[in-house]
Amino acid sequence: RGRAAVLRRPHAGAGERRQAAARQGGAGGARDDGGDGVTGGGDAAAPRGRGGQGQRLGKGTAVYVMLPLETVGAGGKVARARALAASLAALRSGGVEGVMVDVWWGVVEREGPRRYDWEGYGELVRMVERAGLRLQMVMSFHQCGGNVGDSCNIPLPGWVLEEMKSNPDIVYTDRSGRRNPEYISLGCDTLPVLKGRTPIQVYSDYMRSFRDTFRGYLGNTIVEIQVGLGPCGELRYPSYPEANGTWRFPGIGEFQCYDKMVWLIGVQYMRASLQQAAAAAGHEEWGRGGPHDAGEYKQFPEETGFFRRDGTWCTEYGDFFLGWYSGMLLEHGDRVLAAAEAVFRGTGAALSAKVAGIHWHYRTRSHAAELTAGYYNTRRRDGYAPVAAMLARRGAVLNFTCMEMRDEQQPEHAGCSPEQLVRQVRSAARAARVGLAGENALERYDEAAFAQVVATAASAGLGAFTYLRMNKKLFDGDNWRQFVSFVRAMTDGGERAALPSCDTEQSDLYVGFLEKRAAPEAEAAAAAAAVV
């Protein structure tokens, strides 16, 4: 294996790093296939001051913006770099703290095991630094495509797909035998199913290469590492896949615990784990598979024997199965986060993990959609307290979605309550003393959605909020004005540092251009919209 190419920055003390002093110039990529270390950086605006876990100093909440899913595309290159530079400058002018980007496993390790291509992400980090913004980087060990909002297709690395083809039981499987290639099944976390390495080892090696490559940026430009733990990067099972019409809202979804019973060498997958748990409970018959009466993806709770008002979920068997199913998910999250904690300890970058906002059927007793996703949350049991406690043990921030939703906006027949769900998760985070951050689940540009986020951030004490997502619509006149007002409300009128005085990307958007305009935020957005 070759030496990693390292993106280096000048040595500086903690105070200098916090103020992000001028960076050393340099060019080149970051490709872990044997090249010598290279120096990244360039003239940069000073990023804003930061409190713990990405929160502004003071009482406001820092706002980040998700970059497009294909910002670094399947070939490992930054897509439309000039348009991106214009967009970053516009976001900076609007008071945004930073941006979030998916670091796709299927892009970085596409050429083979331990052959990492960080070049495109190295270019992106330098662009963000020059714009005076900060970065939240997501270790995306899942595929892109087939879910809500997926605008492109980025599969897992080809060599991983080959392993799936030869051994299909390493992916999640439902009761009918349908395989889901979005993410490797947690049932084989500790099995050497990936060219002699376990998935946990593969994830650890990937994160270690990332750390070594971007060490000089961690804790200053790169302030947060969000660790992907499942489909869409969320700690959950793929219980509601939209691909090919398998599921549609507000279906209950299906349990995903039907991959192989016993591996060739006797090491066990999920069904074998269930058998062991059932035998330990004194009911071997419970280990034959998941519930027989749990229905299908698109059904409602009352249409099933398991999820109806007084169904099987509230029996001794139901408690056993749901405890095992959710416990397996928690163990998976803990294993991956333990690996991330070991890799990023001492770098200055915060760790976070995303929990899905499954708000439909929340008003029912069984909370069916949450149960199939792996959250053992019912009218009788708090399913988010164990999640928060696990994250607290690993020092990870709990990042929760659906912060923009209001109960009154949801369809009555779906039994939704995103507001109650957010309150429950907030309480769980407080009890566990774990940091809480948020996202919106769907693209929204209206004042009502922004007002809901502001209110939630104030009551929940969000450390940061990441807005989904940067696109041309965001920079349209009315949408942009609403967004800038929202950012100012979130940050409580916090001081916005100056833009860079030079334009190294020839985007015609920096200070020399903006100072000629009476409304720089609007002009920056208009210019960005013209090229995005």
TrEMBL record:
Residues 1-11 have a biased composition (Basic residues). It catalyses: Hydrolysis of (1->4)-alpha-D-glucosidic linkages in polysaccharides so as to remove successive maltose units from the non-reducing ends of the chains. InterPro entries: GH (IPR017853), Glyco_hydro_14 (IPR001554), Glyco_hydro_14_CS (IPR018238). Pfam families: Glyco_hydro_14. GO terms for molecular function: beta-amylase activity. The active site is at residues 234, 439. Substrate binds at residues 102, 142, 150, 354, 359, 401, 440-441, 469. Its EC number is 3.2.1.2. Residues 1-56 are annotated as: Disordered. Residues 36-56 have a biased composition (Gly residues). Keywords: Carbohydrate metabolism, Glycosidase, Hydrolase, Polysaccharide degradation. It comes from the Eukaryota. GO terms for biological process: polysaccharide catabolic process. It is an enzyme of class 3 (hydrolase). Belongs to the glycosyl hydrolase 14 family. This is Beta-amylase. It comes from Oryza glaberrima (African rice). The lineage of its organism: Eukaryota, Viridiplantae, Streptophyta, Embryophyta, Tracheophyta.
